[in-house]
Amino acid sequence: MLKSYEAIYDHGHIKWLSELPDVEQARVIITVLPQEPLVSSEKPNGARLVSILRATPTELLASIAEKFGDPVEWQREQRKDRVLPGREDDR
Fold it and tell me: Which residues contact 45 (CB under 8 A, 6 or more apart)?
């Protein structure tokens, strides 16, 4: 597996941010990462989700619950005990 090294490319020069590669000469492929984060760092994802849900009209939330059913009931169905192999007689 190839090892990655973090560096900054600046006007034709590479400044290594961590350990240096242990080679005298090597072929490299450089991937340019964006300078700004792709996701807004204003709020954590959980807080963003809560604000989206609070802004959603209650009629829409009710129609979603009606279409997919009660999530608590679905979870109970998923967690029902199953018979384990070799333990059929224990019930």
Answer: 39
Residue pLDDT, tens place only, 53-87: 888 888 887 887 788 888 888 888 888 777 778 87
Q: With beta carbons less than 8 A apart as the criterion, state whether 91 and 83 touch.
A: yes
Residue 81 and residue 56: Cα distance in Å, rounded?
36
* Contact yes or no for 52/61 (Cβ under 8 A): no
- For residue 63, give the H/E element and its range: helix 58-68
User: Where along the chain do its domains lie?
Assistant: 45-80
